Each structure stands twice: as C-alpha cells, then as structure tokens.
Amino acid sequence: EIALPEKTYADGAPVGHFFTQLMGRVNAIAGVQSAGAVSQMPLTDSYTSGSVYFADSSIPNIPRLPGAANLPYMEVDQRSATPGYFQAMQIPLVRGRLLSPADDARAPFVAVVDANFAQRFWPHGDAIGQRVAVDSIPGAKAPAPRWRTIVGVVGHVKHYGLDTEGREQIYLPHEQPLFGSFTPRDMTLAV
C-alpha cells in the first residue's frame, strides 16, 4: 500500500502522474505479467461507498433525489483503479472494455461496473453506454451531475469476505478526478 503525503502531492494531476509512472515501472520489471493499483483492495478493512446517480430515469424501485431533477440514485461501493488492476487481480471482463491509459483527465469521463451492478439496474438491457454520476461538475453555478459513460462490465468481487456477496461496485479511472480535483493518494498495488 502506498500513501502519498498530502503536503508533497496535492490533489489531481501530480497524484495521477505518480501512479502512472509507478505502474509503468512495475510493469517493466522482468517476470511481472500485469500490475495495477486500486483505492480499496478486496478482503481488507478498506472500503468506500457513495451515491451513484443515473441518467436513465426509467430504472424502477430505487430512490430518487428530490430537487436534483428527481434523479434515481443508489449507494454502491466505489473504487478508483489504474489500468492493469483487473488483469492483475484476474477479474474477468464480462462485456465492453477495461480501463485504459487513455482514460485520463482530458478524455471523456468513464466507469466500469461489476456484473451485479449491471444486472440490478439494467436486468433486461445493457449497461454499456449508460450514464452515471458520482459527483458534480466543478464550478457549475447550480449543482449538475458530471456524467460518466459505462464502458465495461467486470466480474463481481467479494470485497468484504468470501461468504459475503457485498454491494454493487463501480470502478473509476484513477487519472480522472473526483469531486473537483480529488485523486486518491492512497492506493494498493496488485502484481
């Protein structure tokens, strides 16, 4: 686990750049088949959850947020991940694509969800191409969701224990900031 000091690494680009360089160096080590990093490693005491808002207003049986365009939302597990994390952890790609180095702060914002997330919210449809938000557009005059397009569906990970199914999961590219310019400084490597 690596925890970058806040004093040296402010939010945003410097943090993302550090982990991009680190993962490049780790992946270049002889014998390493794949490596990535994640903000909360499974089967540890580390977890983060938060609300995910859905652009698809036809999703039944979930709460709606009054005053925010009556958007449907749900509490799910949220993780920030680097490219290579799913391969290193052998989390299978079910549909679409995984996170890539192109998913940086300049690219359209994207997300990868687990199969339980896709099945719960689009049981008769396709999660790929759906839009979700975990934060608002920074500096907007009125709160407005910062939409991310779902580009991939991966297998579900039993994060809390092998005997616990756990919540639905969303993975966000580490290089794409959250809540303004925040980029997680604490990441755990998977090699």
Integer-rounded radius of gyration: 16 Å
User: What is the 3D form?
Assistant: globular
Unreliable residue stretches: none
Class inferred from helices and paired strands: alpha+beta
Q: N-to-C terminal Cα separation, in Å? A: 12 Å
- Number of E-state strands: 11
**What is the H-and-E element order?**
EHEEEEHEEHEEEE
- Provide mean pLDDT, rounded: 91
What's the main sheet like?
6 strands, mixed, barrel
Strand content: 25-35%
Strand order of the largest sheet: 3-5-10-7-9-8
Number of helices: 3
Assembly state (oligomeric): single chain
Helix content estimate = 10-25%
Outline the structure in words:
- This protein has 191 residues and is of the alpha+beta class.
- Helices cover 14% and strands 31% of the residues.
- The protein has three helices and eleven strands.
- It has helices spanning 13-27, 85-88, 115-121, and strands at 2-3, 36-38, 49-54, 64-65, 71-81, 93-96, 110-114, 131-136, 145-154, 169-173, 186-190.
- The longest helix is centred in the N-terminal third of the chain and has 15 residues, at 13-27.
- The chain starts with a strand and ends with a strand.
